[in-house]
Amino acid sequence: MKSLKIMILVLLIQTKIFSQQSPKREMRAAWISTVENIDWPSKPGLSDKEMKNEMIAILDNLRSYNMNTVIFQIRPTADAYYKSTKEPASHWITGTQGVAPGFDPLQMMIDEAGKRGMNVHVWLNPYRVQKDTVRDVLSKNHLYFKRPDLFLTYGKTRYFNPGLKETRDFVASVVGEIVRKYDIQAVHMDDYFYPYKIAGQEFPDDKAFAKEPRQFKDKDDWRRDNVDLIIKQIRDTIIANKPEVEFGISPFGVWRNIAKDSQGSNTAAGATNYDDLYANILKWQKENWIDYVTPQIYWHIGFDRANFEVLAKWWAEHKYGANVYVGHGDYKISNTAKEPEWRSPDQIVKQIEMIRKMPLIDGSMHFTASTFLKKGDTLRKPLVEKEYKYIALTPEANRIVRLKPEPPTNAVIAKKGDKAVLTWKAAFNDKKYVIYRFPKGKITDFSNPSTIYYVTTALKLEVPNADLENYVYALTALSQTQTESSPIEFSTK
Questions:
Q1: CB 92 within 8 A of CB 142
Q2: In the sheet that 128-130 helps form, which strands lie side by side, from edge to edge?
Q3: How far apart are CA 473 and CA 492, in angstroms?
C-alpha cells in the first residue's frame, strides 16, 4: 500500500510539472494594433493585395509561435475595420476615412485565423473618436457632424462624452451590430476608458454632470458609474445577441495602490484604473459583467513600483470567477532598453514560467503582433523550444454556458505519395477541429498537448510525411465556447 501511494504521488507530481511546462489549454494571444498603423496595415493607402499579404504574414508568424488567439483592433477611433452601417471605414486603412478597401478586413481575419486554428477577439475603444484634432481626418458622414453635442475634446484628442446616455446607447449599438454579423470569439476593450489625466487640465464634463447627475454629489463616483453603465449595457447587448460570445477587458495593470485602498496591490503606480481612468474593474468581475480580465502588467519581475510577480498574484487572487490572462509587454524587449531586464526575451520566458505556477491564471496576451515579426528567432526560439513547444487549445470561459459539439463524421485518410489528405464532415455545434497524432496502436492520452498535430476551421488537411505505417490520426470538434467533443479515429481510404 505504501509503495502504491508513493507511485501515485510521483505521477501527480509529474503531471503537475508537465502541465506547468506545456498545458493543453492556455490562452496564447497577441494584440494586432491598428491605431497609427502599429501592426496592420503597415501604412495607410496600400493596395488590397499588399494589405492581404501583410495580414497573412502576421498570422503565419503567430502560428509559428503556436499562438491560438488574435485580438484585432477594429474600432480604434470611432471608425471601422469591418463593414459598418454606423461608422466610416478607418483612415488608418486607405488614408481617407470613409473610403473602405475592396475587402472586409475583419472577415478576412476571421477566415484566415480560423484556418490556422486561432480565435479572433475584436478590440474596440469605447470613447476615443479622433486621436489628434489638429489633423482633419473625420469624414463628412461621421456622427460628429450630426451630433456634435455628444463629443468633447481633452488635450488634442476628441472623445464621446462618457456622461451621456446617448453615448452609451450608440456604443452598445455598434457592439450589437458586430456581434450579430461576425463569427467572433469575444469583444475586447483595453485600458482607455476615461483618458489618462493631463497635468493641469480637468476633463471637460461639467455640463454632462449637471445634466445627468443621477443623484451623485461626487464627480469621481459619477464618472465611475458612467463607465459601469456602459460595461453593463455592452454585456447585456452581447447576451441578447449571442450569449456564447465572451466579453473581456484588458485594464491598466494596477487597480488601486495599497496606500489608497487596503484591498489594493502593494504597488506605487503613478496612475490607477479606479482613481484615474474611473474603471472599477473589480466591480465588473464581481457583478459577472465581464468574462475575462487581462491586466497589462508591462513591468519586469522585481520592478520596485509595480512588481510583475506581486501584480500577477494580486489579479489571480481577485478574479471572482472571471478568467484571468496576463498582458505581457513584449514590445519592451530591446538590446538598448534602459532596464537591463528587457534586453533579452528571457524576461517574457520567466514571466510565463512564473504564471504557470499560479493555477488561477489561465494564460497570456502579448503586446504586440509586430514584436513577434521584428524579433524573429530571437523571441521564437526560446518560446517554441520550451514554453510554447506544443499547440494549446484556448481555455473555456468560466461564465459562458457551454455549447457541446457533436463529434465530426466521415473522418478519412487518403494517401497521396509522401503526403496524406485528411477529410471529415461537420456535425452539430462544430466550429473548429483538433487533429491528434499518436504512435500506431497507442490512442490513449488526449490530455497530452504533444499529441495535438493541428487545429483548424477547415474540413480538410494535407499532412506531409504522414508516415501512416507508424502513426494514426484522430479528430475532435470544438464548439464556439471551446468545448471539445469526444474523439473519432481516421480510417484509411
A1: no
A2: 128-130, 157-160, 151-154
A3: 10
